[in-house]
Amino acid sequence: MKRLGILLSGRGSNFQAIADNIAAGRLDAEIAIVISNRPEAPGLEIARERGLPAISIPSKGLEREPYDRLLLAGLDERRVELVCLAGYMRLLSAAFLRAYPLRVLNIHPSLLPAFPGLDAQHQALEHGVKYSGCTVHFVDEHLDAGPILLQAVVPVLEDDTVESLSARILKEEHRTYTEAIRIVLEGRYRIEGRRVIRW
Amino acid sequence: MKRLGILLSGRGSNFQAIADNIAAGRLDAEIAIVISNRPEAPGLEIARERGLPAISIPSKGLEREPYDRLLLAGLDERRVELVCLAGYMRLLSAAFLRAYPLRVLNIHPSLLPAFPGLDAQHQALEHGVKYSGCTVHFVDEHLDAGPILLQAVVPVLEDDTVESLSARILKEEHRTYTEAIRIVLEGRYRIEGRRVIRW
Question: End of a domain among B101, B117, B137?
Fold first, then answer.
């Protein structure tokens, strides 16, 4: 059984969807550890209620590299094979990424490269795009960059608010993230340049 | 009958689609003039073969503002009400845009704001996105910016080349541009910030 490590900073809605899909037999993996950089993240309590190991490694006041060494120790101890970011609000260091080459995934609520960063759904609405969606990508040292594994598209409706658009995208996030994890765990892809080709 | 002015620099494939849709009764408008800034643009000959008025106003060696005054004179003479760019490879000046406020449209072969500028399909392939498409937008002084009227989405396939992806997008361009022109001519929209809301 492949061992996932989840990093989060808040509720970790995508973490919950992954856990649901594992519980329902839709994803052949287990969550080996949930780590939050913020002790007060609701995702930690949610993990514990589900009987999953969950720890806080507070990042406050720590530089990126020393903090990432703590993170790596936590993941290594649990023999994590694939790291899934679920609303983890920090960039990862090059040293961290060297320890998990092409083994860190993130999901972002826009059709990247459009609208990276915070409040992607708000950005999309303000820009007036007619379609948005979500992107699962391999993580590199840059914000919401890295080779794209999967995307899903949703329409932006004329009367959308940030809330209604976010809800529509979130539904696709929950489906898409699990599918992307499955592709990576099964090794059904190759990377050419920054194109991820599936087979 | 609403009078369209077409600006192009090459073949103007989207111009031909507009002309086809007018001829087929799918768009209630007429092409009052086709203007190219390049005398050798194939679109000029294609227009003449269709019996449409077509002129060359060479831009070579002219600064933007003086050139745009020549363009405006050509459009005014033909009493053009809506200007449609169809592969017109120059930015328009503020003075031009003041003369046609919210009356200049462009189509771009990507889901803007992703991949503005040249070779958008190549950019999309290289970036490794899983969906691309086209965007019809009101033109402002910036490259491929301005409020978005319509977009259409196509998948990017694993074995796509620039040619195959471009062909898939082009089919959507031909449909989408005509629909956007219809919306503008019928006045069935309002603009809030940079969102174009249709009704």
Answer: B101
